[in-house]
Design brief:
alpha+beta; five-stranded mixed sheet; 19% helix; 36% strand
Length: 114
């Protein structure tokens, strides 16, 4: 059976797994027709013991859920210094966010969501 691939997306290299932990510090709702359409996230990923901040837009309706993470310029510079493939690193971060592999940091004294 042939493997279908997206010709517009670089295929992930299994040797570049980019093991990371993802943390969300804040989540704000956006407005849209019929209620909130997207959420804006701020957080960071920990890769090789270093924190790499990012912002993301999480959205979904027709076609399912998706997240578009954007690393900060400082994160990009440091990852380039580490010779990280930024496209694959961001794809791994995106996959973790979509699949819910993250920790939400709840401020002290705040009521956790139900």
């Amino acid at each position: 059976m042939s493997k279908t691939t997206n010709p517009f997306r670089k295929e992930e290299d299994p040797t570049l797994e980019y093991e990371m932990d993802v943390f969300i510090d804040a989540m704000d709702e956006a407005s849209g027709v019929g209620g909130g359409v997207a959420n804006f996230l701020t957080g960071y990923t920990v890769y090789k013991g270093e924190k790499f901040p990012f912002e993301a837009v999480a959205y979904g309706r027709i076609g399912g859920q998706n997240v578009k993470p954007t690393l900060t310029p400082e994160s990009i510079k440091r990852l380039e210094d580490l010779r990280v493939d930024l496209e694959l690193f961001t794809a791994r971060l995106q996959r973790k966010l979509v699949e819910g592999e993250m920790t939400v940091n709840i401020p002290e004294g705040a009521t956790p969501p139900e």
